[in-house]
Amino acid sequence: MTSQTDISRMQEGEALFGFDELFYSRTDKRGVILAGNEVFRRVSGFEWDRLLGAPHKLVRHPDTPRGVFRILWSALGAGHPMGAYVKNRCANGDHYWVFAVLMPVEDGFLSVRLRPSTALFERIRDVYARISARDRSENTDPELSANELRAIAASEGFSSYTSYMAFALGQELAARDKKLGRPADPRTSRLIEMNKALEQVTQEQMKLLRSFEALQSIPNNMRIVASRLEPSGGPVSAISENYKASSMVISERLRSFVAGRDNLCDRVSRQAARALFLLGSNRVLSEMNANFAEADPVEGIDWDHERVLLQKLEENTRRATREAMEQAVSHADGLSRSSAEIRRQMLGLDTIRVLGRVECGRMRETSGGLSATIDQLDIFHDDIKKRLESIMRLSEEIGSAMNSFLRGDRV
């Protein structure tokens, strides 16, 4: 197979390997290497007698933050696949970068790794350099750097690290296709599109909560204004009390919708992110299986067993992708219905707001403070309704996109 290389962005001491090449390795549950392919041996520079039976950390480079492995082991230990950018070291001290797709298999873990080349990879490389330097100088707890990496994902609008890595995998696969002169893969393109919609849902969710929390102070402001404008128990006071009572009902509904552990938005995000990562992983596994069919066996490795295991994993991943998509579609439908219900409940608040505006007109010259308060309500109501409509639209897009995969049996 002809190696496709691009040395324009290589670092000093970086080992060359092709975009057309995939690394393969399998370990037991302790991380001891049980099998691998020739690409792994050649690029790492370790011979098979050094690799087989050795812990996978043999190729670990100190420039990969320990928090990366904390995230990986946490996901794999829970039975979930995960991806990560990893810097590895060679036997001669050189290094190489990979995007690793890791999956739990019977009695251990399996990894397929490709060469990264995106702008996201360049950013991650800088992040890793900063975090790993601190890890070494301060001997920090791996959970600290793991939390920092999760915070970076959240700051970029992703609901979870899985979603962030699904996005990364989609980007790397699309870039790899371009490097190899392949036509854009429709599954990868759709993966990227769905992940963007998922990211937007997360952003809208956060903005919606902020707007509604800001709204909660307005009934109190109305009561303060009312105490200056009318006797106790007057119409403005009654309006403010009715608004507060109605908004509290919506607030509770909204919190179960977008806040707290296992809320509906998170359920959509979690299942959609899992489906998207599995979708990309399935494509990588499919190519790895094709490579195995052409590769020469390695002495000391039961090649037939590895081939059967890979084929079984590809089938299982395809099935798991469908299941995750079905769950995501179900949650997305629920999310859309809940958004519509809260939108209808907001109409009740609109009626109370209009009554407040009527009182502003009745009070005329004395209603300046009340008018400003009602103006605030106008702004927040418009913003909340826009956020709800956006979440409805995006959840419908996610559900529709995943349904199209399911109907076409393309996963």
TrEMBL record:
Keyword ATP-binding applies: no
Pfam families found in the cross-reference section: PAS_3 (PF08447)
Keywords linked to the UniProt accession: Receptor
PAS fold-3 domain residues: 37-106
InterPro entries xref list: PAS, PAS-like_dom_sf, PAS_fold_3
Name of the featured protein: Aerotaxis receptor
Source organism: Rhodobacter maris
